[in-house]
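Board notes (copied after class):
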Amino acid sequence: NGHSSKTMHTSYGDMDVAIPRDRNGDYEPQLIKKYQNTVTQDMEEKILSMYAKGMTTGDIESHMRELYDIDISDSTISRITDKILPIVKEWQERPLEEVYAVVFMDAIHYHVRSEGRIVKRAVYIALGIDMSGKKDVLGMYVGENESAKFWLSIMNGLKNRGVEDILIACVDGLNGFPQAIEAVYPKTEIQQCIIHQIRNSTKFVSYKDIKKLMADLKLVYAAPTEETALNELELFKDKWDSKYPKIYKSWNDNWATLSTYFKYPEAVRRLIYTTNAIEGFNRQLRKVTKSKTVFPSDDSLLKMLYL
């Protein structure tokens, strides 16, 4: 049923195209899609997809040359990937559910170039499980090294985005972390990651003692009830306190946040006593970012993680 005309913008200048029309409007153009007015749109999607899979701008540049015989400078590739920054911002500020059953919080560290120096940056990640059991990344934030103060600002951010309550928060053993959560969500139960605690406690144990000590420690955290766990902890103290006094002290001091999972049935315990859910997510991120030892800026780091 005739043609409609469209002007295409290409790298060689503008070009008028006549697009066939049909009476029912079923016709789908294949080469130049509907509403597309530049030939580069498809190319940009390819570049974003390569960037998302962890390829560096230099890799993408040589790849485009081999595949399409097109010369694209790495600064152009950076400009193309910069187009997603507003989308990242929008994603970081999107409204959230009112209540989350469990929220895992952790930080992952990267090296970023800043003012001519290479500095360490922490990427703060909050992963939520909503009331229907669905996992969702609530946000990723690039900040200075991991600190409870920064987590406090993130908790306030979650509140502003509509999160009224978190039932259980799972965190690693960062100082001041529980206080930061309590300041914003006073009724939230806090579960400190048992695996992190074990790693920290056994750091300085002699390799000769490690097997026996771990077996005794397992009796504490794998106990069926909190009462049994406390008894086992006292027995652990009697046996090992003379040699490794710091271990009992650390478990005893943090017991309030370490023992939260005892209140729950087995299925919930397994989910919350470690931050495994978020560690798995971090592994996915590491897989993509392993080709880059240093990121040129905070934005480039956030772009890649978001994609």
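Comment from the instructor: Residues 20 and 26 are 11 Å apart (CA to CA). The chain has three domains: 3-88, 96-193+275-307, 194-271.
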